[in-house]
Design goal:
Blueprint lengths: L5 E11 L2 H11 L3 E6 L2 E5 L9 E5 L4 E9 L2 H13 L4 E7 L7 E6 L5 E6 L18 E9 L2 H12 L2 E8 L3 E8 L7 E5 L4 E8 L3 H13 L4 E7 L6 E6 L5 E5 L13 E4 L3 H4 L10 H6 L15
Parallel strand pairs: 1-4, 5-8, 9-12, 10-17, 13-16
Antiparallel strand pairs: 1-5, 2-3, 3-4, 6-7, 7-8, 9-13, 10-11, 11-12, 14-15, 15-16
Organism: Catenuloplanes nepalensis
Protein name: Catechol 2,3-dioxygenase-like lactoylglutathione lyase family enzyme
Pfam families: Glyoxalase
Length: 312
């Protein structure tokens, strides 16, 4: 798509009351590397990713999703996107300018249709990263984020119109209708998915592992440590990726995955998958059944950050 200005997903930023517990979990258990930790803010990198960080944790009185961040190709793309959004009546939180987060760069923030803060940036200095080795069960990169909303059709329309995301696939159900929309900003099957839920919140954040063996080793490490598993291990139909979902200490659902599908965007046609067929949710048949309890855990708490910009 020639006028797509967003190139990729950068990071997801979380605010939590118990900062020390959350930081310990994401570093010692989940496998992220602390880059900068100072006065209640931590920037955590994935060893295999050139992004300065893939998760930011901030100490706060209330749990919330601070923001979701995307990359753009260059400064001109950032300016053009900000101009388009402003012209279309989207609320800009900040105008394009220099950024003071690790790696610097040039970017701006705005509210999406549900009131989430979204950041877009370019010219962020690449982090010195490394190849994740065989049997090393740590994340290579942030794969995707899934967002809950009561009005997914409107959210999908916003991301299609304003950010030029493309629909890859949709999950539907005979009794519930369309419940999840997978959207892409490059040839990965999805960088964002929009889920139908009872309120606006983070559904889950997903982290790519090196391969099947590393994915299983990581899943097993968390199971042995007693981390609460939500769903998995299994392999989805949409995206063809593996999945094991866990809860972090503050009840955010996070996923280990691998082998997310890459598409030929010129020839791809979206599928409508009926997930009343159990092979749609899990091709392998190894995961615990998808039911109301599993779904409820990923609804998450009501997001206290809706239409409230994070303080940093």
């Amino acid at each position: 798509m020639t006028d797509r200005l967003i190139t990729h997903l950068r990071h997801v930023d979380l605010a939590v009351p118990d900062y020390d517990r959350q930081l310990d979990f994401y570093t010692t258990m989940w496998g992220l590397a602390p880059q900068v930790t100072d006065s209640g803010v931590a920037f955590l990198a994935a060893e295999g990713s050139p992004e300065q960080y893939v998760v930011r944790i901030r100490k706060a009185e209330e749990k919330r999703l601070d923001l979701v961040a995307f990359g753009a190709a260059d400064r001109a793309s950032v300016d053009e996107l900000a101009l388009r959004l402003g012209r279309d009546g989207v609320t800009l939180i900040t105008e394009p300018g220099a950024m003071d987060t690790p790696g610097g760069g040039y970017g701006f923030r705005f509210f999406d249709v549900d009131g989430r803060t979204v950041e877009v940036s370019a010219e962020v200095e690449a982090r010195q990263h490394r190849k994740v080795e065989e049997k090393e069960s740590i994340p290579v990169r942030l794969s995707h984020v899934v967002l809950n909303t009561r009005t997914p059709e409107a959210t999908v329309a916003f991301y299609e119109k304003h950010l030029r995301f493309a629909l890859s696939d949709t999950l539907t159900h005979p009794h519930m209708g369309d419940v999840m929309f997978f959207m892409r900003c490059n040839d990965w099957h999805h960088s964002v998915a929009i889920a139908r839920g009872p309120h606006t919140a983070l559904h889950h954040a997903s982290f790519e592992m090196r391969g099947i063996d590393e994915y299983m080793r990581g899943s097993g490490r968390l199971l042995r440590a007693g981390v609460e598993k939500v769903w998995g291990p299994g392999r989805h139909m949409a995206g063809n990726n593996t999945f094991t979902y866990f809860l972090d200490p503050h009840g955010n659902t996070i996923e280990y995955t691998t082998e997310l599908e890459r598409l030929d965007e010129d020839t791809w046609h979206p599928h409508l998958y009926d997930f009343s067929d159990p092979t749609v949710s899990d091709q392998w048949g190894t995961a615990n059944p998808m039911n109301e309890l599993v779904a409820k855990q990923s609804f998450n708490d009501v997001d206290r950050g809706v239409f409230v910009a994070p303080p940093m």
